[in-house]
Amino acid sequence: MEALLDTLRDTVEQLRVCAAEGLRDEVIRGSSDGDLVDALRVAGEAARLVDALLVESTGEVVRRSWTSERDLRLTTRMGCHDVSELVQRLTRLSPSSVGRLQKAAKSVLVEHRLDGEPLPARLPAMRDALIDGEVGVDGLLAVAGPLEAMGDRVAVEDLLAADAVLAAEARGVGPDGAPPACADLLRIQALAWSAVLDQDGAQPREERALRLRGVRLGRVRDGVVPISGALLPEVAAQFQRICTAVESPRTQPGVRFHPDDPNTDPFLPDQRTTAQQHHDALATALTVAATSELLPTIGGAAPTLLISVRAEDLASDTGWAHVDGTDEPVSPAAARHAGCAGVIQHVVLDDRGRILKIGTEQRVFNKHQRRAIGLRDGNCIIPGCGVPAAWCEVHHVTDHANGGPTHTDNGVLLCWSHHRFIDDGIWKIRMNHGVPQVQADKWYDNTMRWRPVTTSPTRMLDTIKRRT
C-alpha cells in the first residue's frame, strides 16, 4: 500500500504542475484544435482512472463500516456519522456524488468468503474495464442500473454475458466494432439487454413506478411555487415533446425586421433559461387544456381560473390581484393576461364588500374568431417566435378592461411567454385597419418603425405578389 500511496502522491504533484502550466498560463487556450482534443481525451482517461480508485476505496470504506458493533466501524473510529460523511470530508465531493460512488462500488466490489476466498464481483467485466480506465463512474452506473434492476429474475450466466458485451462496447471492441461507447450509449444498450433478458420484469417495475409517481406543489416562496415529484417515463416524454414543440426556434421562416440589411439576423435571441422555457411550455399546455372544452367540468363549467382585482388597480396597473386557490397575490399584469386567455365575469362590489352587480360570463374570443385570427396571423406575431396558432392565446390589443372589443380587429396571436410579458415594452402592438403591426425596441430596431407581421402563407404570398 505504501508504494501505491507514493505513486499517487507523485501523480497528484505532477497533475498539479500540469494544471498550473495549462490553466494559469493559458497554454490550453493557445493550443491547436488537435492538441486541445488530445488534452481532453487524456484528461478523460485520467479522470476514469481516478474514478476507479475512488470506487474501490469507497467500497472498502463501506465494507469496513459494515458491522453491527458501532465501535468497530471505520466511520466511528474516524468520528463520522456514516460512510457518506467520511467520504465527503476526504474527497470534498457532494452527497449525491458520494452516493454514486457507493452505488458503483456495490456492483464491482470483490467480496470474500469467511475462509478468505474471493467472490467474483457482480459485474466482473465492467470491473476490469473500470480498473483499466476504459469506463468511469457514469458509464459503470449506466450499465449497472438496468442490469441489477433485473435481480434474480435473470440467470447469472445471462447477466454475465450482458456484462461482458457491454464492457467490450465500453472498450471499443464490441461485436459491431464501434468506437468506445460513452455513458449515455452504454445506458441505452444496457436497457436493451434488460428488455431482452427480463421479459417478465416490466410488470414489477411498472408497479413500482406507479407507486412512485406524483407531483407535489410546495408553499409559495419568493413569488413562485416550488414543484417536485416523479413522472412516469411516458408522461415525461410527452412533456418533453410539448417543450420541444413550444420552444423550437425558427419553426417558421419568421419576419425580417431589417428589410434593407439582408445580412442582419432577424431573430431576437431567447433570453430565457431552459428551466424558464420548460415552465412556459407547461403553462402553455395547461392553458390549451383548460380552454379545449375537453376537461371535466367543475360545477357544470369548464375549469376557470378565478382572479379578483379592483377595477381602479387594473386600470392604473398598481396594487394587487388575487387568484382563487392561493394566498399569494399577483400583479395586475397577470390578471389582464388571465382575462385575455380565459373567461371574464364582472362582479361589482361596494367599498364595504357588498355585491352590487354580477355580469354574465363571457369567453373572450370564441372558436370562430380564433380560427380567423389564426389564418390572418399564422403563428405568434412576435418576429421569429414561431409558436403555432393552436398553442397561442388571443391578446386584446386594447385591453378588455379599457373597453377593447372582443373582435378580430382587436385580437392578435401571442404565445404564453410573449403574452405574459408584453407589458415589458420590448415589443409594442397596434392594429391598422384590422392588420396587426409590431414595433421593436430601439436597441433591436433603431428605426422603431411599425411593421406589419404575419407568417400566414396566404398573406405572405399576397405580399410577394404586390412586390413583383
From TrEMBL:
Residues 368-420 form the HNH nuclease domain. Coiled coil: none annotated. InterPro entries: DUF222, HNH_nuc. SMART domains: HNHc (SM00507). Signal peptide: none annotated. This is DUF222 domain-containing protein.
